[in-house]
Amino acid sequence: MAEKVDFSLVHFLIVDGNPLSADLARDLLLTMGATTVFVAHGYDEAIAALKSNVVDVLLTELHLPPRSGLDLIREVRSGKTGGNRQMPILVMSALSAKDHVFEARDAGVTEFIAKPYGVEGFYRRMVGIIAHPRAFVDSDKYFGPDRRRRQLPYDGPDRRQ
Hints:
alpha/beta; 5-stranded parallel sheet; two-stranded antiparallel ribbon; 9 strands; globular
């Protein structure tokens, strides 16, 4: 755990239908120094929390019956929640197959951590999304953090200007 971040100034919203899982994430954030952590156990509760509170970072499960964490991410990215469209979003989910990760990425998630996760991995992702925010892409088909992780040299005809 090399880098330090002051989590006391960041407002978090955890959305997880499993109370134990939500409590674990909340306890980790509080241990890391967070002072404002909202918890919602479903999609509708999360939307209400986003509309009535200042939230800087959203942590969500993908499995939020009867809706989906993907629906929640899309709502945030569309701006329909009234909050910051560019807020970092961390998905914490046991649905960690490649297809689920790609769906989350394409919905606009900032980071993904598979359950069960360790403290160090959780901390690294939180530091990464807060201390090193990614540039955002706003196009006709996608709004969210830049999905490219590596900057590879490319001089081909499709290179963006």
